[in-house]
Amino acid sequence: MRLLVVEDNNELSKLLSQGLGSAGYQVDAVSSAADARDALSDISYAAMILDLGLPDEDGLSILTELRRRGDPLPVIVLTARGGLQDRVGGLRNGADDYLVKPFALEELVARLQAILRRPGQLLGRSLELGNLTYDTESRQTFVGGAPRTLSARELSVLEILLRRQGRVVPKKAVEDHIFGLAGEVGSNAVEVYVSRLRKQLSEYGATVVIHTIRGVGYMMTAET
After folding, report:
1. Nearest Cα residue to 181 out of 63, 35, 11
2. Which of 22, 75, 120, 214 has the most CB atoms around its CB within 10 Å?
3. 217 φ, ψ (degrees, to nearest 5)
């Protein structure tokens, strides 16, 4: 599950990226409102961690824009502004939660998990299809109840296909989910990881099928 961290303090940004990564999330980090807008326009994120004190403008402007266009992206605001009116203002502008610096990383992770479990959000603790189960918190895969090992990028492919099971997932969406803002990506990189995942699941005896929709993307269904 990919998150966008918008924080201009390099040290804190690194700590957030490392901590959230250790909690099982994939993280893209940017340091300005302009870069945040670019990232949001290119990639579909599960949630955003947003600092308000950005160098180019107030982070609340990004939040306000999201809500005005009806974007339900979960947003946790991080700020040094700890006053009651600041907290109320952030929540009224559409923040899902509000943390005042300094804060404990464990609390941020717990609040993030709680938000993503709300009805209508992306995080289901367990994703299932056929005899395949994927635990989104532990990032553990089970086939017929037995734990199976997949690489981090194979898990990324598995997660997005399971979340949209029975529907075609565009190749670009799969690429963004795997690589995010990683930069230049090989032309056949997605095909490579889909192929590896397909082979692994077959060897493990998973009763699912990954269909390639030529020129469009991929779809996962249960075997019939």
Report:
1. 35
2. 75
3. 170, -140
Phi, psi of 64 (to 5 degrees): -60, -40
Residue 192 to residue 134: CA distance in whole angstroms = 21
**pTM of the complete model beyond 0.70:** no
Residue 35, phi then psi, degrees to nearest 5: -65, -35
Q: Is the distance from CB of 122 to CB of 162 less than 8 angstroms? A: no
**Could you tell me what percent of the chain has a pLDDT over 90?**
43
Structure tokens at 183: 């930069």
* pLDDT above 60: residue 56: yes
- Of 86, 55, 59, nearest to 75 by C-alpha is 59
Span 41-63, mean pLDDT?
A: 87
Tokens coding 102 = 């300094």
